[in-house]
Write a structure and sequence with these properties.
The complex is a heterodimer. Chain A is α/β, with parallel strands linked by helices. Chain A is built from 6 helices and 12 strands. In chain A, helix 5 (198-205) packs across helix 6 (221-233). In chain B, 6% of the residues lie in helices and 32% in strands. Chain B has a single domain (44-194), classed as Sulfite Oxidase, Chain A, domain 2 (Alpha-Beta Complex). The chains are: A alpha/beta, B mainly beta. The complex binds flavin-adenine dinucleotide (FAD). Flavin-adenine dinucleotide binds at residues 44, 59-62, 76-78, 80-87, 126, 129, 244, 246-247 of chain A. Chain A: This is Oxidoreductase.
Chain lengths: 248, 201
């Protein structure tokens, strides 16, 4: 793992081959790697933008695509008000542009690999990105690992990867999906309205055939604290709860 | 390589000689942690100094708080690319911890250990001579739990993952032994001015 990261963390130029609007605030960018790398679901890349006078801005973005995909990786970027890099992606970047990135990075927030203990995923907003990579990997690999995803979004229209998740829920018998909408009533009987709390996490974990062996939590820091505490309340060891915090 | 159409939020009048390459300034204080935020009551807190496997001295919260206090105001730099200027800290300098244990320079390397199982390696030369402390206060207030309270290591001249949160000990080692992130692809030393982010940088 360490060697793999060390060997491939060089900067490379990647062409944007397509852009897709996912939600009102989130777009996906499909980038063709000029130096393809192997990665594990959950990892991220660092992206670097350079201005004509040499000024650079660098940010991290999780990889949304499954490792079994081609040389094209998907990043899903949420527009933040006045965000330096996310606004650039939303307002300026288009297919045909070239972007510098390095990866894969991050050696902790990683799909656990062969094990048949269920995996609990809890995300908010764009925090579902690395969890989506895990679910896509779970489907592509056929590993018999039950997975539950509890995903918090503002509204039904803000649920990133919504249609794909609904389709996966239908096609994968051991995928549990629960959406928590914070600014709208729940749309389905199995969903929730309101912010994620201990009760919701316990309810979703309870839909797995046996208790989860580990949990992955991703989103803003405030969200991650609440969701990680809820995972602790289930009885998971702190070391079995991995978090990725997108900062503020 | 110039990115088409990117100008960025440039820091016209900012003191750019204080922003290492690839970093940008923030006003807030982002939190990055690999797991749940631990809860440690000061009454349950201890700090242990070890040389190799051998414990040399341990302090309770009140004993530790009775050690000489140091204040420092420093710029800090996170490997995820944010930097924050003029952060004010108060705590116990590593020099004073070593002095209280009657230790000079036990070995050239150390590992900081933490309540959540985290660890990180820092050479003694980067801990001693007033360069680092175990911080107990941030901006005059007890260290918030999110930021490592009750106590965190502060090694402000290295990337901030070296400033281990919820620290509960320093272990001196003969060799430079990788800690948590250093085993997971991050640089052994982590100098922001040389952009030592990942293993081979
Ligand atoms: C491991 C990791 C993975 C990540 N994965 C993803 C992902 O998959 N998708 C995703 O969308 N994000 C992801 N993020 C977050 C991402 O890295 C960026 O932090 C995010 O896109 C914001 O960057 P920005 O340049 O747009 O905003 P910034 O310019 O950094 O600003 C962030 C916010 O603070 C405000 N702000 C800060 N400083 C100033 C200032 N000086 N002036 C004005 N406003 C300011 C902005 O208005 C904005 O709302 C990830 C982060 C990490 C650490």
């Amino acid at each position: 793992m360490t060697e793999a990261i060390a060997a491939t963390a060089r900067w490379q130029s990647c062409a944007i081959v397509a852009v897709a609007t996912r939600t009102p605030a989130i777009k996906s960018f499909f980038l063709r790697l000029s130096e393809p790398f192997d990665y594990t679901a959950g990892q991220h890349v660092d992206v670097r933008l350079t201005a004509p006078n040499g000024y650079t801005a660098m940010r991290s973005y999780s990889i949304a695509s499954t490792p079994s995909d081609s040389k094209v990786i998907e990043l899903a970027i949420e527009r933040l008000p006045d965000g330096e890099v996310s606004s650039f992606f939303h307002d300026v970047a288009q297919a045909g542009d070239t972007i510098e990135l390095r990866g894969p990075l991050g050696g902790h927030f990683l799909w656990p690999g062969p094990s048949n203990k269920p995996v609990l995923l809890i995300g908010a907003g764009s925090g579902v990105v690395p969890l989506m990579a895990m679910i896509r990997y779970r489907k592509a690999s056929g590993e018999p690992v039950p997975v539950a995803l509890l995903l918090s979004s503002r509204t039904w229209g803000d649920v990133l990867f919504r249609d794909e998740l609904l389709e996966l829920e239908r096609s994968l018998s051991d995928l549990v999906l629960a959406l928590a909408l914070t600014r709208e009533p729940a749309m389905r009987r199995t969903d929730f309205s309101g912010r994620i709390d201990d009760r919701m996490v316990a309810d979703v974990a309870g839909r797995l055939p046996v208790p989860p062996g580990c949990a992955f939590v991703c989103g803003s820091n405030a969200f991650v604290d609440i969701a990680a505490d809820a995972a602790l309340a289930l009885g998971l060891e702190a070391g079995a709860i991995k978090t990725e915090r997108y900062g503020a | 390589m110039v990115t088409r159409g990117f100008t960025g939020r440039q820091y016209g009048s900012e003191p750019s000689d204080r922003i290492p390459p690839g970093q940008h300034l923030v006003d807030n204080f982002p939190v990055l942690t690999a797991g749940p935020t631990p809860r440690i009551e000061p009454a349950d807190w201890t700090f242990t100094l070890k040389v190799g496997p051998r414990p040399v001295k341990a302090w309770s919260w009140s004993e530790f708080n009775a050690l000489p206090r140091t204040k420092m105001t420093r710029d800090i730099h996170c490997v995820t690319s944010w930097s924050k200027l003029n952060t004010a800290w108060e705590g116990v300098a590593v020099d004073d911890i070593l002095a209280d244990a009657c230790l000079g320079a036990p070995t050239p390397f150390a590992l900081a250990h933490c309540y959540d199982g985290y660890s990180t390696n820092v050479p003694l030369a980067d801990l001693a001579m007033g360069k680092a402390m175990v911080a107990l206060k941030y901006e005059g207030q007890p260290l918030p739990r999110d930021h490592g309270g009750p106590a965190r290591l502060l090694v402000p001249h290295l990337y901030f993952w070296k400033s281990a949160k919820w620290v509960n000990g320093l272990q001196f080692t003969e060799r430079d032994e990788a800690g948590f992130w250093e085993l997971r692809g991050y640089h052994m030393y982590g100098d922001p001015w040389n952009e030592q982010r990942y293993t081979n940088d």
